[in-house]
Amino acid sequence: MQIDRQAGCMLPVVIFGAKLQPDGSPGRTLWLRLAAAHAYGEAHAPVLYIPTGGPSHPSGMREGEVMATLLGAAGVPPDALLVEGTAPDTLASVIACTRLLRQRGHVGPVAVASSSYHLPRCLYSCA
């Protein structure tokens, strides 16, 4: 079956970033968010993963790009990834991801991958 990934028929899954380790590798929180998003994507395909997060200090690496690399290594095809690599915080991530989705013509639901302690902030930022 051929999936038209450009027509907006994929469910977006926004993956909120978390601070990277000093060497630029993901910490436990980020690994858990990625694992949850990937498991959700496997169960609800087709999805469009949107890893979001800007530079993480002191490494300077972008959280969104690190997540995209790890998802790619897990077998996610490049056309199922839309990286947002500028947002410094949750609110900025919501705004940037909303802009990206509107540019693609997306209307409808969006799934969110975060942590239980972070989810209220994510939802409040979306309100």
Summarize the structure.
The chain is an alpha/beta fold. 39% of the residues lie in helices and 15% in strands.
Keywords:
disordered N terminus; two-stranded antiparallel sheet; 127 residues; three-stranded parallel sheet; globular
Describe the fold and architecture.
The protein is α/β, with parallel strands linked by helices and 127 residues long. The N terminus is likely disordered. It contains 4 helices and 5 strands; from the N terminus they run E-H-E-E-E-H-H-E-H. Helix 3 packs across helix 4. 34% of the residues are buried. Helix content is 39%, strand content 15%.
**Helix share, percent:** 25-40%
Coarse structural class: alpha/beta
Largest sheet strand order: 2-1-5
Main beta sheet strand tally, sense and closure:
3 strands, parallel
Total beta strands = 5
Please mark out the parts with pLDDT under 50 across 5 or more consecutive residues, or reply none.
1-7
**N-to-C CA distance:** 36 Å
SSE layout and pairing:
Blueprint: E1 11-16, H1 28-43, E2 47-52, E3 55-56, E4 61-62, H2 63-73, H3 90-103, E5 111-113, H4 119-126
Parallel strand pairs: 1-2, 1-5
Antiparallel strand pairs: 3-4
